[in-house]
Structure formats: structure tokens, C-alpha cells
Amino acid sequence: MGSPEKHAEAIKAEAKRLGFLSCGISKAVFLEEEAPRLEKWLKKGMQGEMQYMENHFDKRLDPRLLVDDAKSVISVLLNYFPEKTQDEGTYKISRYAYGQDYHHVMKSKLRQLMEFIEESVGEVNGRAFVDSAPVLDKAWAAKSGLGWIGKNSNLLTQQVGSYYFIGELIVDLELDYDGPVTDHCGSCTACLDACPTQAIVEPYVVDGSKCISYFTIELKNEIPSQMRGKFDDWIFGCDVCQEVCPWNRFSRPHSEPLFQPHPELLAMGKKDWEEITAEVFRKVFKKSAVKRTKYAGLKRNIRFLE
Q1: Exposed site from 20, 161, 178, 184, fewest CB < 10 Å?
Q2: In which residues is [4Fe-4S] cluster 1 bound (predicted)?
Q3: pLDDT digits (tens, 9 = 90+) for 18-49
Q4: Closest CA to 159 of 252, 58, 57, 33
């Protein structure tokens, strides 16, 4: 059978082989510290129209409600920092959406990791999660020592910054557990100072309903007119609080072929975006997360900035 230590070592080695930046493991318990924070955030309406954030409150805080007899939460990071970015002076999309939709890429790798665990340990009950279920990804990654939650509410890691996706396996297998790392934001307020819509209302608290990502992806109605002139040319997502974070000077380009941008994307100027047809949208963003906003949503975002 092997010991919890040996299993944890083998899982981390396999995660590395699969291309994950890092892997950390936590005991599957109720997230006591997160409960009052999440409740306060929801009471203040900072989720805006993201009603799904209000659902499954208990499941968000207790992985044992998602997987029967869960013992461990295995968190992994996958780098998406691109080698090349869009040209200056064009409409911008968040770097995470340059390549194929991360949900599919991450899920596939996590399934492979789960298969490895089953092959090496025997029968293990578990589920893979990538940002689409009631799991507090960043809290688990921080608990597992993969980084700390920064003032922009992103997970930050000293060696690699924050341009990565987070996923996890929740399993009913006892493992050796990691501990959290210390916060290294110090007195820095770069992200708070740079946020175009002042969505970071205080250190470590982001009002989701004021974030450019919310307006350009989640909001289904028209964007409020008082936001005009504040979007800094972002039409899908926003990377400002990551761009100004000093820890991202350590970001290195990813090596995941599926995250390579469509050749036409990086060359698109403002005119190309303004004249984008449904056909070009389908071709360039065929497997991209940009499809979430749909063609009509992207056109709305562009019109708002014209």
C-alpha cells in the first residue's frame, strides 16, 4: 500500500511530469477562516449578478460534502504566461484566454493524475475540479503551501508570480500534508493603486461587481455608463493587477502547446476588432474561453470602448 508520505511524493512527481508548475496537499476539512469572509463578501453584494457564488455555501467550505469521506485536497498550478502578448494600442483580452479553454486542458491533466493515483494505490474515490464547481481554489492552494493570497485576491508565488490556473483533486486517501507559506505582499499597494475601476476596495478584498472581468464576461446586461473611459481598452477580462505585481517579474513563458494563441489573435489591431465578424470570432476563438462572452457580448464590449 505504501505510506501517506510515499503516496504524496509519488503524486507530486507525477504532477510535475504532467506539466504542472507545482502540487501541494491539504487535509480535507471545513475552511473555518474562509466562512465569515465569504459570508461578509456575499452580504455586501460583491458578487454582483454572479448568483452562482451564492449557491452551495456549505459545499464551498467543506470538501467532504463534495466527495464522500474525503481525506485530502490535492492542489495543482498550471502556468499560462505567454511568450508573446498582443501589440500595443489594440483592444486587449486577458492572457489566460489566449489559448484553448483552460477548463478542458486542466481537467484532462487532472484526470491523468487521478488515473495515476488509482494505478499506484488501488481503489480511490475522488473528483477533479477546475474553477467550475463550488470549491475555493485559492484558499486550498494557499493552505497547501503553493503561495499566499495577495492584496489583489490572487494567489501569488515568490518564484513564479501569479499567471497560472489552479485545479484540485479531492480524494478519500490519507496523504502527507503541506502547510501554508507566509504573506510577502508587505507594504506594497501596486495593485490597489493601479486598478482602473478601484475594484480592490481594501487590501485582500475585491468587489467582484466593480471588476473589469465582471463587466466584460459575467454581466449579461449593458455595461453601466459611469464605467465609460475606465476600461483601459480591455474587452475580455483584465490583467492590470497582475501586470503591476512585483512578483510577476519572475513569470516565465509556459510550455503548454494548447495555450498557444491563434496566429491571427496577436496581430489584430483596433480596426480588426471593431470589424470582427461572427465567422472570424468562431475561427479565432473556436476553443477559447472567450466564447463565454459570445460574439454579441464581445461586440458589446468593443462598442462600449469605441
Answers
A1: 184
A2: 185, 188, 191, 245
A3: 999 999 999 999 999 999 999 999 999 999 88
A4: 252
Q: For residue 4, is pLDDT > 80? A: yes
Hey, CA dihedral for 165, 111, 120, 26, is it positive or negative?
positive
Q: Is 238 annotated as a binding residue?
A: yes
- 78 labelled binding-site residue: no
Report the candidate in 246, 198, 239 with the shortest Cα–Cα distance to residue 86: 239
Cα(58)–Cα(79) distance, integer angstroms: 30
Q: In angstroms, rounded to a whole number, what is the distance separating the alpha carbons of residues 8 and 171?
A: 12
pLDDT higher than 80, residue 166? yes
> How far apart are the C-alpha atoms of 46 and 207, rounded to whole Å?
5
> What's residue 206's pLDDT?
96
Check if the beta carbon of residue 73 is closer than 8 Å to that of residue 140.
Answer: yes
- Residues designated as active site: 131
How far apart are alpha carbons 139 and 91 in whole angstroms?
32
For cell 495555450, the residue is 259
220 labelled as ligand-binding?
yes
Q: Name the residue ranges covered by the structural domains of the chain.
A: 1-306
Task: Determine the Cα–Cα distance for residues 147 and 305; give it in Å rounded to an integer.
Answer: 35
Q: Taking residues 149-170, what's their average pLDDT?
A: 97
Q: What is the mean pLDDT of residues 98-103?
A: 95
CA dihedral 167, 172, 147, 119 (to 10 degrees): -70
Contacts of 237 by beta carbon, 8 Å cutoff, 6+ apart:
93, 94, 96, 97, 212, 213, 216, 217
Is 23 marked as a binding-site residue? no
Q: Confirm if 256 and 80 have CB atoms less than 8 A apart.
A: yes
Dist CA 142 CA 242 (whole Å): 17
